[in-house]
Amino acid sequence: MIVDVLREAAKYTALHSEFGKGFDFLMAPECASLPDGRYEIDGDRVFALVSHKHGLSRADATLEAHHRYIDIHYVISGCDSIGWRPIGECSQVTSDYDPGTDVVLFRDEPACWTIVQPGWFAVFFPEDAHAPLISQDIVHKVVLKVQIAV
């Protein structure tokens, strides 16, 4: 897991050949005014999911993990508290991996919580189980999905 401010995103582009395209999308002035929905950046290899969602309580947190995509959660407004636990420490599977949605769900408790404020992003790799959207706010965010093997 990585947490940083968007203006520092260039430090992370060497981690994946497609990160630069995703960060360029987030830095575009029109990104903050896009309606909710899916936006293709590079087909299924890199795409963005824009949403305004009311946050959940920690009691309702569900850890999720992905096999085919890296998630980059970027908060535009509101405040997102995201739970994290190494997938190797997750033992309570509530929903087996679904290749159609690229998600596996766990009942385990997050090992720690990270606050992601407006202008910040968090990167979750396949080994990072995460429970997003824990907030008392309506969170306006973009989740970039970056395919592992491109």
Quick overview of this protein structure:
This protein is mostly beta strands and 150 residues long. It is 6% helix and 50% strand.
Describe the 3D structure.
With 150 residues, the protein is mainly beta. The chain has one domain: YhcH/YjgK/YiaL (Jelly Rolls). It is built from one helix and twelve strands, in the order E-H-E-E-E-E-E-E-E-E-E-E-E. A six-stranded antiparallel β-sheet has the order 1-10-5-12-3-2, with helices on one face.
Tell me the overall shape: globular
Distance between the termini: 21 Å
- Counted by DSSP, the helix tally is 1
CATH class: Mainly Beta
Q: Helicity range of the residues?
A: under 10%
Largest sheet: 6 strands, antiparallel
As for the CATH topology, it is Jelly Rolls
Ranges where pLDDT stays below 50 over 5 or more residues in a row are none
Domain tally: 1
Properties at a glance:
150 residues; Jelly Rolls; 6-stranded antiparallel sheet; 12 strands; mainly beta; 6% helix; 1 helix
List strands and helices in order, with pairings.
Elements: E1 2-5, H1 19-27, E2 37-42, E3 46-54, E4 63-65, E5 69-77, E6 80-86, E7 93-98, E8 103-106, E9 112-116, E10 120-124, E11 128-134, E12 138-147
Antiparallel strand pairs: 1-10, 2-3, 3-12, 4-8, 5-10, 5-12, 6-9, 6-11, 7-8
